[in-house]
Amino acid sequence: MPDKDPCGLIKGIAKKMCENDWEPEGGSDPDGGGGGGITQGASEHVKDLAETLIKTLDGLLAPKGGWAPEKPDNWLYQQFLWLGQHLAVAILVCVIVVCALTAWQGAPRLRQLGASTGWTLAAVAGMASVPGVVMLLNRAVASAFTTAFDSDQSTLLKTISKDLDRGGNPVAILVIISALVVALAFAALVFMTRQLGILAFVLMAPLVLASLARGGDTSAVRAWAMRLLGLIFAPFALLLISPFVPMVKGSLVMEAVLLVAADALMLRMIFHGIPYFGPKIAGAARGFVESRTTNPLARAVVRAGSPDFYEQENQPRMPRTVNTPGRAAHQDRGVLFAAYGIKQQQRSSRLTTQSAIDKSQREAPRNQQLIEARRAARAAAAQPTTPGPRTQAPAAGAPGPAPVRPPNL
Questions:
Q1: pLDDT value, residue 326
Q2: Is 147 exposed, middle or buried (0-12, 13-18, 19+ CB in 10 A)?
Q3: pTM for the full model?
């Protein structure tokens, strides 16, 4: 019975190697130094991985599509569009009624009526055009970003691809792959925050534009447009690293350094570019990195992207302050005396005893936390950093130093 083929269960290149019938691509080197084999296959896999990471990075930073509706007939946008249009018409009707009731004032009311009618028509037309304008801006930003970062051999991503194709030190290749993976994580965070922000501001557009119907007050529209444009054009912050690309061409390690700088810029982009929640998100990313690494370089990068900051909050709703009957009567008496030409002495106000007790009880937890924080800070400041020389005190009952007598003159 013939022996079973030992290579029968193996497929592909491994089977040819088992049968001694495989030759590396490009022929074999007679001196035994030819490339190929497992090393060449691994190198190709690393290059393919790098190309995939680069394409994904480019697509996340400036995607050609977005989550925001591209046309006004989108179901979600139509709900806000209906609300905004009816709100604008309701404001216009109110202005018409007010102008009709005060028509005796003449030209000012006619001007107000004309301005309100014109701005209402402009607002209704603008509501339907916002999704298309945002879609065109997104595509323009994506094309410009691709041109600036992945178009020719002088851009960062193309330079990395070219240097990887050329080969080099395996350690440098591993470093650049690691930098690409980290940059991909920050790019995913930028993508999520940008897309959610653009979607929210596009849906808010009808409600903001409806405010124009009152008479052309554009303050709310300007604030809304500035935040939306900041979200759309945020990726252009990475242009700050473009001038340094020709200096590091050919060095994968220095290109990895540029990618690390791009990570800090992306985090700073979230900090400043995402309205309302940007500092919170960037601070959470910084805390996530600092809690999982002790590397000083990684901590310095996230601190550069998300600096320390203080937050201000709205004062909580407090009970209103009213005057006691005696103080209210005192103030009205002063008005009466002033009518007779008599100047009354003004008295400063203060809370009653019970009101002061209620206020102190309400603010007691916050005040206690502040007191403990100040006490800890003073204790840390008063603690000596280096122990000074100690002087040994004389033992109990031991004679002290003899007094110095003045010389007899």
A1: 84
A2: exposed
A3: 0.72
